């Protein structure tokens, strides 16, 4: 009866070294107000100067989503009073955003759905107000004031909480791929606001929407949107009307609540900032940036599937994180390895350990070189897969080198036919009852024999060869 | 974003209610005994300003900068160091490096 | 000594006829003696000046001499000066000490000049009479009952009274030229973007420009070269190369084509008209051609200005909220009160009025009718000047509609006050350079001649002004202050 209509606004902090309009540092976690210079503090007489990297990053983003890049975009002042806004206005963009149009594709209900982007513009971040440090006062830290943001506004084309989450994840992956942001939701470099309304399925008329602000995890986004959809349908089913308002999501109570803040009564009085000039972007600059773009996730996926013959599922995992996909290819390039087995190893063994240690690819204790060496040992049957798993764990935990582990502990597989023949013969001799049972049909007992050989050889016997020999010798 | 803005009406809408709204937006306090004078002078100024309407500007492109220049771009480098103590030197409403304001209840 | 020009003092210092310390002491004692009558200074930086003067003298002894070494001057109290109070004529910044120097300050310091003090001004540069300063009115040295003009009243009056040989000022709608005219001194507002605005407390960002006051046009030329130039810290500053304005002044005069807008003469006071006509005759006699032109939109220039300037200032002054610096009201109950009380107690009436008008002009529903409309009028005015400059080199007219008015005469009539800028605002709206030089008197009060040029045509303006001053001697007339 009610169809949800969802639009998302994402604020992404760009990972430039310095701020968008000043040369102060953007490092996270600095002591309060130690990274706020005169411009960030809104001191009298100081003036903003635009950081080129912020512009380049915005262009990169625009190109990645197939958007139009404005060649004459203007910064505007958004005027309101709040202690974390030192100048009493935020420098943002209003009528002429640097990026407009464009789209990304999301997977929804087993099909691909295109979500259009309305616009993306550059603006400066505000500082932080902390309300629980002092009893009667709020504390203001302006380190964050001036950090460049790109605000990405989607068309209201998502129809479920799931689609919204897919969109967010796709965007999140994209901005990390482009290396324009670290996308760290806990640290506030990827913030999401959702606009939700309901409309009658047969109707084209949109309902009144509510805005849910500053949700900082994918899970919370899903919960908040579902709660909101529920809340609104209940009201509408009871014959009530939706108030256009801003609401905050409370994750512990899993509900959205109306924000009774002064910001709502504001008239922002946008006008072009007279301290800044129109940003002129030449075709040449756009070409240069286009040529410096990394391979985008969608293209990489297609390439991995065709070049390496990997499954959709496996590829999706490998390409989620650009650094992981690069790690995978580095491993392949070091030695001649089977892509499917390499992918499998990374997905099952490595990612499991990475998850446990909660590490990013760049902090992995195992290098692509070392993993390549280990996988080569498996390929050459120097060690068995089972052994490899144990060795890999040690490489991960202790940063040991595979060659060293194998040499020091003499773990090389025993593949010598002569030696194995002797051992197999021995086992058969000493277990004639089981041999009889096997020959009378209990073929499952093969495992027992293999186990015995392994025990005898401390697990070093080449399982393939052992299997072959046993099968031959146990024949009647 | 809800705009409890001002509805578009005749330009000479400088009355007391409007002024009180504007003053709130601008965070300026107008005392009751000042209100009449301010309303009066603002009305007069708007009268002067309305003379702009005597000139047709339908096809004119607005100017925001006298020279037709483009924004110069700055290299992305950190050139500022921590000067917190200097900036907060004369401000007694700071503690532990924070600026302090009366508690804000959201 | 105090009747010497900057040019003469430069020579005296170079030729060791006078030391920097002597000069500095002389002007300081003059200020101390006479400024109580004028109130043209907010801060006198005696210690700093003496210290710097001694340093300069030591350098000169070693043979290190900079272009303006040892010349004392004053900075309008709108320029941030490190370790010296910058009040902007306001209670809001009564005790504000900036941790950085404005670019203009840095440049003149680097040229060897010595700051003797910060001059009084209309609060936040809003005014045409210097009657809105928190630190009291400035008096016109020609008659202490009369205004010196504004907003750079202190800078104009102090040069006029020869308390200093030169000073800096700022001009948003006429705030250098109009006080120069009323005080009988030279004042130049350069092309928009010629001089960096970094560190100059902003009033209306797209109109503000820094400039100088001197007693001669030649001195203006010397100082202009030193304050001009591209500044990467000011995105609106221009990369146009800076010529040696002084040498342009000394070149042989090439007759120029002068345009006089009929709108500047309509209804003009007869005395002012007479004096103006006499000045024009000087130019005619020297080979200049005079042409009557029309700048139709100059009639509504004040209307457009009274939207753009307040709109931009309403936003520029939002940073004054008592939180990080400046005046802060005590015992406030909540953040809203903190803002409202700090700003209402810290700002004067005129500032509040302009913030309110500006906020209104930008508000939802009014933006198109006011701000956008005014920006379109600007374009029209600019186009009209561009057309005019196809036919003429310079546009001339009286700087102000009349000589100085009495203190208190217009302070309750904002419209009358705003109309004193009727001839000056167009140059700001179009970003054009303009200068005022003394051209005569009406009832013993000075009158100024305004010379407007095309963008970056300061050399033509200065050439005409210098030539005028080679032939006439209005610029040598000095006020007589009792006790002097």
Which SSEs are present, and which pair or pack?
The complex is a heterotrimer of chains A (476), B (106) and C (484).
Chain A: E1 2-13, E2 50-51, H1 52-64, E3 68-69, E4 72-73, E5 76-79, E6 89-92, E7 99-100, E8 103-108, E9 111-124, E10 128-130, E11 137-141, E12 148-154, H2 161-177, E13 190-200, E14 210-215, H3 218-237, E15 246-250, E16 255-258, E17 271-272, E18 279-280, H4 283-291, H5 297-308, H6 312-320, H7 322-334, H8 339-357, H9 368-379, H10 385-398, H11 402-408, H12 417-430, H13 432-439, H14 446-456, H15 463-473
Helix pairs in contact in A: 2-3, 5-6, 6-8, 7-9, 12-14, 12-15, 14-15
Chain B: H1 16-25, H2 32-49, E1 73-74, H3 84-88, E2 94-95, E3 98-102
Antiparallel strand pairs in B: 2-3
Chain C: H1 6-14, H2 20-38, E1 41-44, H3 46-61, E2 72-76, H4 103-110, E3 114-119, H5 153-160, E4 166-171, H6 177-183, E5 186-189, E6 209-214, H7 217-227, H8 245-250, E7 257-261, H9 262-265, H10 270-285, E8 289-293, H11 301-316, H12 335-346, H13 349-362, H14 368-391, E9 394-398, H15 414-418, H16 425-430, E10 434-442, E11 445-453, H17 458-471
Parallel strand pairs in C: 2-3, 7-8, 7-9
Antiparallel strand pairs in C: 1-3, 4-6, 5-6, 5-10, 9-11, 10-11
Biggest interface in this structure? B-C, 56 and 72 residues
Strand content of chain B: 5-15%
Major sheet details of chain B? 2 strands, antiparallel
Please write the string of helix (H) and strand (E) elements of chain B. HHEHEE
Taken as a percent bin, the fraction of beta residues of chain A is 15-25%
- Rounded to the nearest angstrom, the radius of gyration of chain A is 30 Å
Average of per-residue pLDDT values of chain B: 84
DSSP helical segment count of chain A: 15
Helix content of chain B: 25-40%
Q: Helix count of chain B? A: 3
> Reading side by side through the largest sheet of chain B, how are the strands ordered?
2-3
Describe the protein's architecture and organization.
The complex is a heterotrimer of chains A (476), B (106) and C (484). Chain A has 476 residues and is of the alpha+beta class. Helix content of chain A is 40%, strand content 20%. Chain A has 15 helices and 18 strands. The longest helix of chain A is centred in the middle third of the chain and has 20 residues, at 218-237. Chain A starts with a strand and ends with a helix. The mean pLDDT of chain A is 90. By secondary structure, chain B is an alpha+beta fold. Chain B has a domain at 2-51. Chain B has a two-stranded antiparallel sheet. In chain B, strand 2 (94-95) and strand 3 (98-102) form a beta hairpin. The relative contact order of chain B is 0.08. Chain C is built from 17 helices and 11 strands. Chain C has helices spanning 6-14, 20-38, 46-61, 103-110, 153-160, 177-183, 217-227, 245-250, 262-265, 270-285, 301-316, 335-346, 349-362, 368-391, 414-418, 425-430, 458-471, and strands at residues 41-44, 72-76, 114-119, 166-171, 186-189, 209-214, 257-261, 289-293, 394-398, 434-442, 445-453. Chain C has an 8-stranded mixed β-sheet, with helices on both faces. A 3-stranded mixed β-sheet of chain C has the order 1-3-2, sandwiched between helices. In chain C, helix 4 links the parallel strand 2 (72-76) and strand 3 (114-119). The radius of gyration of chain C is 21 Å and the shape is globular. The model of chain C has no long low-confidence stretch (mean pLDDT 96). Chains in contact: A-B, A-C, B-C. Chains B and C meet through helix 1, helix 2 and strand 3 of B and helix 11, helix 12, helix 13, helix 14 and helix 15 of C.
């Amino acid at each position: 009866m009610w169809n949800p209509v969802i639009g998302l606004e994402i604020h992404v902090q760009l990972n430039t070294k310095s701020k968008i309009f000043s040369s102060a540092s953007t490092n996270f976690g600095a002591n309060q107000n130690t990274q706020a210079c005169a411009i960030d503090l809104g001191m009298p007489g100081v003036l903003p100067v635009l950081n080129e990297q912020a512009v380049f990053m915005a262009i990169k983003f625009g190109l990645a989503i197939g958007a139009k890049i404005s060649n004459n975009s203007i910064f505007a002042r958004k005027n309101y009073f709040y202690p974390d806004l030192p100048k009493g206005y935020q420098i943002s963009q209003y009528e002429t955003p640097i990026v407009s149009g464009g789209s990304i594709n999301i997977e929804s209900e087993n099909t691909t759905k295109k979500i259009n982007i309305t616009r993306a513009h550059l603006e400066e971040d505000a500082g932080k107000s902390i309300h629980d440090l002092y009893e009667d006062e709020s504390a203001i830290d302006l380190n964050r004031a001036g950090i460049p943001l790109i605000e990405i506004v989607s068309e209201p084309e998502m129809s479920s909480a799931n689609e919204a989450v897919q969109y967010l994840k796709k965007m999140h992956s994209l901005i990390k791929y482009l290396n324009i942001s670290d996308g760290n939701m806990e640290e506030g470099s990827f913030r999401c606001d959702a606009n939700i309304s309901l409309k009658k399925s047969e109707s084209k008329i949109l309902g009144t929407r509510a805005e849910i602000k500053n949700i900082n995890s994918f899970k919370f986004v899903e919960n908040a949107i579902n709660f909101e959809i529920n809340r609104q349908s209940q009201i509408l089913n009871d014959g009530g009307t939706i108030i256009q308002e801003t609401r905050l999501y409370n994750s512990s109570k899993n509900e959205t609540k109306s924000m009774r803040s002064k910001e709502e009564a504001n008239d922002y009085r946008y006008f072009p900032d007279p301290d800044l000039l129109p940003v002129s972007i030449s075709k040449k600059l756009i070409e240069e940036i286009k040529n410096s773009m990394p391979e985008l996730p969608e293209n990489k996926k297609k390439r991995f599937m065709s070049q390496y013959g990997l499954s959709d599922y496996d590829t999706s995992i490998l390409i989620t994180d650009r650094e992981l996909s690069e790690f995978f290819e580095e491993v392949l390039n070091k030695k001649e390895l089977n892509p499917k087995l390499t992918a499998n190893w990374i997905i099952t063994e490595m990612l499991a350990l990475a998850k446990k240690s909660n590490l990013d690819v760049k902090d992995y204790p195992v290098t692509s070189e070392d993993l390549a060496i280990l996988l080569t040992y498996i390929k050459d049957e120097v060690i068995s897969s089972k052994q490899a798993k144990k060795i890999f764990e040690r490489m991960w935990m202790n940063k040991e080198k595979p060659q060293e582990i194998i040499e020091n502990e003499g773990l090389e597989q025993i593949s010598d036919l002569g030696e194995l023949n002797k051992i197999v013969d021995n086992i058969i001799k000493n277990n004639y009852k089981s041999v009889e049972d096997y020959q009378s049909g209990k073929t499952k007992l093969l495992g027992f024999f293999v186990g015995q050989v392994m025990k005898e050889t401390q697990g070093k016997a080449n399982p393939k060869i052992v299997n072959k020999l046993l099968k031959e010798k146990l024949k009647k | 974003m809800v705009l409890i803005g001002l509805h578009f009406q005749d330009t000479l809408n400088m009355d007391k209610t409007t002024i009180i709204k504007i003053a709130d937006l601008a965070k300026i306090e107008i005392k009751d005994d000042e209100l009449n004078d301010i309303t009066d002078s603002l009305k007069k100024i708007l009268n002067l300003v309305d003379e702009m309407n005597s000139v047709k500007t339908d096809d004119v492109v607005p100017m925001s900068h006298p020279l037709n220049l483009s924004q110069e771009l700055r290299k992305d480098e950190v050139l500022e160091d921590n000067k917190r103590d200097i900036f907060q030197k004369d401000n007694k409403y700071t503690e532990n490096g924070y600026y302090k304001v009366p508690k804000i209840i959201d | 000594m105090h009747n010497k020009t900057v040019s003469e003092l430069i020579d005296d210092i170079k030729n060791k006829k006078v030391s920097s310390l002597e000069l500095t002491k002389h002007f300081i004692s003059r200020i101390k003696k006479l400024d109580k009558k004028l109130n043209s200074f907010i801060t006198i930086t005696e210690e700093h000046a003496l210290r710097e003067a001694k340093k300069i003298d030591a350098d000169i002894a070693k043979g290190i001499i900079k272009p303006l070494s040892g010349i004392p001057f004053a900075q309008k109290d709108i320029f941030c000066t490190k370790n010296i109070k910058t009040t902007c004529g306001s209670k809001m910044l009564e005790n504000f000490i900036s941790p950085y120097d404005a670019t203009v300050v840095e440049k003149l310091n680097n040229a060897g000049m010595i700051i003797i003090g910060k001059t009084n001004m209309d609060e936040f540069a809003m005014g045409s009479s210097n009657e809105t300063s928190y630190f009291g009115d400035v008096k016109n040295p020609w008659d202490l009952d009369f205004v010196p003009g504004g907003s750079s009243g202190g800078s104009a009056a102090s040069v006029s009274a020869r308390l200093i040989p030169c000073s800096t000022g700022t001009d948003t709608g006429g705030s250098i030229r109009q006080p120069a005219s009323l005080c009988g001194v030279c004042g130049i507002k350069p092309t928009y973007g010629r001089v960096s605005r970094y560190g100059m407390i902003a009033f209306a960002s797209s109109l503000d420009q820094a400039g100088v006051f001197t007693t001669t046009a030649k001195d203006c030329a010397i100082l202009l070269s030193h304050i001009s130039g591209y500044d990467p810290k000011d995105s609106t500053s221009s990369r146009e190369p800076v010529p040696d304005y002084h040498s342009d002044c000394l070149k042989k005069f090439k007759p120029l084509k002068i345009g006089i807008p009929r709108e500047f003469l309509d209804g003009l006071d007869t005395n002012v008209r007479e004096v103006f006509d006499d000045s024009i005759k000087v130019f005619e006699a020297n080979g200049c051609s005079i042409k009557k032109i029309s700048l139709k939109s100059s009639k509504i220039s004040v209307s457009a200005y009274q939207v753009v300037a307040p709109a931009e200032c309403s936003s520029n002054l939002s940073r004054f909220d008592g939180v990080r610096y400046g005046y802060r009201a005590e015992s406030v109950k909540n953040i809203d009160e903190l803002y409202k009380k700090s700003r209402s107690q810290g700002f004067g009436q005129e500032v509040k009025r302009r913030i309110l008008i500006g906020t209104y002009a930008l508000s939802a529903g009014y933006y198109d009718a006011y701000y956008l409309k005014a920006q379109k009028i600007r374009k029209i005015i600019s186009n009209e000047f561009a057309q005019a400059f196809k036919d003429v080199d310079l546009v001339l007219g009286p700087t102000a509609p009349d000589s100085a008015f009495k203190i208190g005469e217009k302070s309750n009539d904002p419209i009358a006050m705003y109309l004193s800028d009727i001839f000056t605002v167009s140059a700001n709206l179009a970003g054009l350079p303009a200068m005022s030089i003394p051209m005569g008197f009406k009832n013993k009060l000075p009158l100024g001649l305004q010379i407007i040029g095309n963008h970056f045509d300061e050399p033509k303006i200065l050439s005409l002004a210098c030539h005028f001053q080679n032939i006439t001697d209005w610029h040598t007339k000095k006020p007589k202050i009792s006790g002097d």
